[in-house]
Design brief:
With about 150 residues, this protein is of the alpha+beta class. About 25% of the residues lie in helices and about 35% in strands.
Length: about 150
């Protein structure tokens, strides 16, 4: 399924940097979850350089996008999707849930706010099963992670 809003079109274009670039306004900015530690990218050159790095150094371009939810219009839109891509770092398929919040004008997308399951990302990059980090928190914090919402009081 290909997205129909600016956010959905952007997510559907992941891996094809030229197609992504065609959606951008000159003054685009891209912000990623703060916990990842990447500063906001400001301006077309910075965003395109980031996109090229992701789909050359980090992942192959043949990624798979499965749109789960999409909402909005041509000005403000959001998309939640599963992202699957081969990770050059790990040598295996990476899968994670992402959300993009996008603002656009007639000249293109000018604001992207990207969110992901950063805990799952770190588990993957450390070669651990998803949820490993929570399960191993000290002091019993992660002891009931598998039963959350499944037990009676």
């Amino acid at each position: 399924m290909t997205g129909h809003t600016p956010a959905g079109k952007l997510a559907s274009s992941f891996g094809d940097v030229d197609a992504m670039c065609a959606l951008y306004a000159p003054d685009i900015s891209w912000k990623i979850s703060t916990s990842i530690g990447i500063p906001p990218m400001i301006g077309r050159n910075a965003v395109i350089a980031f996109n090229r790095q992701v789909w050359t150094e980090h992942h192959r371009t043949d990624c798979i996008i499965e749109i789960l939810d999409e909402a909005g219009d041509e000005a403000i839109s959001a998309v939640r999707f599963l992202y699957r891509a081969w990770s050059h770092f790990i040598g295996d398929w990476y899968e994670n849930e992402y959300t993009l919040f996008v603002r656009a004008r007639p000249e293109g997308i000018f604001s992207v706010a990207e969110a992901m399951d950063s805990s799952a990302n770190l588990d993957f990059l450390s070669g651990k099963p998803i949820g490993h980090g929570w399960r191993n928190l000290a002091g019993g914090v992660g002891d009931a992670v598998d039963t959350l919402g499944r037990t009676e009081n």
